[in-house]
Description:
Layout: E1 5-10, H1 14-19, E2 29-35, H2 39-49, E3 53-55, H3 58-62, E4 69-72, H4 79-88, E5 92-96, H5 103-116, E6 120-123, H6 130-140, E7 147-155, H7 175-191, E8 196-203, E9 209-217, E10 223-229, E11 238-242, E12 245-249, E13 258-263, E14 269-272, H8 281-292, H9 303-320
Parallel strand pairs: 1-2, 1-4, 2-3, 4-5, 5-6, 7-10
Antiparallel strand pairs: 7-11, 8-9, 9-10, 11-12, 12-13, 13-14
Keywords: Oxidoreductase
Protein name: Gfo/Idh/MocA family oxidoreductase
InterPro entries: Gfo/Idh/MocA-like_OxRdtase_N, Gfo/Idh/MocA_domain, GFO_IDH_MocA-like_dom, NAD(P)-bd_dom_sf
Amino acid sequence: MSAEIRWGVVGPGRIAESVLPDFAHVPHARVVAVASRSQERADAFAARHGLDRAHGSYADILTDPDVDVLYVATPHAQHHGFALAALRAGKALLVEKAFTATTAGAAEVVAAARETGVFTMEAMWTRFQPAVVALRELVADGAIGEVRSVQADLGVSRVYDPVDRLFALALGGGALLDLGVYVVSFAQMLLGTPQRVVATGSLFPTGVDAEAALLLGYDDGRAATLLASLRQALPGQARVFGTTGWIDVLPRFHHPDTIVLHRAGAESERIRRPQLGVGYAHELIEVTECLRAGGTESAVMPLADTLAVQDVLGQAAEQLGVRHAEAVDVA
Length: 331
């Protein structure tokens, strides 16, 4: 791979608009192209961000010889089909969370990534936040003993609109795939993959989940209690409980700058680790450096973890009666 990693953006929506400015903090990376189903939207995005090329279809960017890696920011249900096409074209991938709309879809993409040897990573920015890195280091050093439980919540209050992406079943809407992925990934990062998933919640009329409460159970008695909601605002806090203390991850935990360490018999310790830019830069740096080193996976956000998280989300969706499917036409 060349010294400079050339990026393309697929899906010039709200999240892509937020991510693009953080490339200013990423050495050896340059965004050169954007793809949209609308040439007009692609042109406007390229003009706003000073990109060289604007493609009027997703398929066109796959044949762009000057793009090394694609940041996929389309709705969840479109990730699966596009990712498979991109891997066949030899394009490395950073795929927005949730990775796919279904567990089977995620398994297929992961299998294709491993078969082709093309770098692929889920854009779970939480794992790369400096404060979360500090938390993992404290846990690894035994600062709170053995981790036995994790609590996390993430919720927003959204006015129900059946045509909005968040409420559209065909686009992978619902609280689980949009917000639940954060709480599940956080728990999986610290506790590993659970043996049992119990979910309860409610649905919107379109068939997507409005809110979900998850209990993740482990054979050795460890547990995670998690909340995700599009029906009400939640603090966005997380707590990691160990046998000799606990760590608070202050709101909002999925991109925090502060954690508080509570050790048994000691004063609490406030630890601040601010992000670069808005906070997306850290995952962009990871992908860029992995590609420069010739890697095919991230050690921080490995494909096995993505698949484990997607499986938990899939089990929860099934228990709630949500029937997600991957989009067929993603050109």
